[in-house]
Amino acid sequence: MRPGMIAAVLGKEVRDLFANRLLLGAVVFPALVFAAIPTGIVAFIEVNELDPDQLGQIQQYISQFPDLSPKLAAQGFIVLNFMAYFLLIPAMVPMAIATQSVIGEKTARSLEPQLATPLEVSELLIGKALSAAAPAILATWAVYLLYGVMNGAIADPVLTRLIFNDVWTVAMLTLVPLICLLSVLLGIIVSSRVTDARTAQQIGGFVVLPVIGIAVAGFFSGQASFSMQQVLIGDLVVALLVGISLAVGNWIFDREAILTRLT
Amino acid sequence: MIESIGLTKHFKALTAVHDLSFSVGDGEIFGLLGPNGAGKTTSVRMLAGLIGPSEGTARINGLELGRDSQRIRAITGVLTETPGLHDKLTARQNLGYYGRLYGLRGANLRRAVDRYLDVVGLPDAGDRRVAGFSKGMRQKVAIARALLHEPDVVYLDEPTSALDPSAAKMVRDFVATLRDAGRSIVVCTHNLDEAERLCDRIGIMRGTLLLVDTPARLRRQGRSASVRVDLVGARRPGSFLDMLAELPFVEAVRAAEGSLLVEVRDPRGDNPELVAALVNAGARIVSVTEEVATLEQVYLDLIGEAGTRDARTVEAA
User: Fold this and answer.
1) A118 touches chain B (CB under 8 A)
2) Which of A16, B40, B262, B281 is least crowded, fewest Cβ atoms below 10 Å from its Cβ?
3) Contact list, A256 vs chain B (CB under 8 Å)
4) CATH code 3.30.70.100 region(s) in chain B
């Protein structure tokens, strides 16, 4: 594995991504939407007093923050509860980039010239995976930071501290990159079996369903946030799935299969 | 130097290439001629170290296929059947990317990119995205890409397809300079005229090599030479037919308007005897011309025979 080769592939892919404004929009837009919704709710609560009836309905949620005023507790619950959706960014965005990248190469028949160079298939795959994962990871981190700072500024600095808690810091540093990697690998595997990006993304959508399920379950469970134990178990499960996907990807993407089936 | 030794490739039940053996010397252009599905691309992919053979092996500049495939790819330039460019990148970025994959860096890379953009006649189009290029311009970028790293061995699949006649000539001339620089070159083509003009030797292929020789010898392959004798005077050409048919070296003869068409085995040895016999019989000869078969005739005969043989084999099976 030669870093220079991976860097060359990465550089080319990043150039490709920046030249594709639509795809670049697909990286940035969902991340902003996922952050904007809860921030909007926090702002709404900030400018509108909660009436006692409403407070009664959300008592079980705000009781998770006994040290905070009911209004701030409601805002705290909202900002933390919506954060599970941040896991959707690494699940969806890299898949879109990876499928576009592989199917684009299939359509342009540009895999063969690359494989005719001393480039190894593993170097090509890692370069592609990094180029699809990196924008999603950076977008998630950037929006996470923005989310923490914005909500602190709109309501109270307590919200910033709630958002930048240990559990989510660990999740951002471990779970987000792992989900990105899994999403990329699944995108590549799916792309090898279909001929157009839309179909690949539709099939890929089913693949990210478990992540969406976790986010939605978190939202409706009444639990404000994941526990550290849940994040670490999540890390373990996703790492295992990454390992399996890597093996399958390597098997599917051997040089001969690419040349005889994918081009 | 390319040495192919019994290369064979099976794809499940299908044998794409069978027992392919030939060699290409330094400074030689070898043409692979054959119809679609003849195994040309599979052969090149094996020789270029892209896919492994099922049987047999090859040595490229002493490097063994399989064991040294990565090193083989480093000294090899491949022009693929379709240009396969990255549309969102400029021509310069496309070449820069491939230059880096071939290990070029910094000033060397920039020099190589500039040089080859110039060689293929695109010095002013380097900073334009290739998505807007014509087919011919794309082909030129792909040719530059294959040569950027000064490979010792070059495989060119239909190098002049999509090029206008002047660009095609430029490419042919450039390929000839590569030969002069000592590179081993394999050209896959359907274009018989191009093969004849460009190649030192030609292999006609259909699953395996049916025939390998120089273009001149291929045209003669297994055929009698046809000699055309133009006559003037009162005697009609048909009046010499019986006399000529008696000559031992004449294989066939027929008369045409003002001329005789005579098939002989060895024109160099037989033509003087033929002329003498005709003069003795009272013929007044204007000219004697050897009519050589075209490469196309030879190719079609061979491919037709192989096709018929394949059909018979399938029928028997």
Assistant:
1) yes
2) B281
3) 50-52
4) 224-291
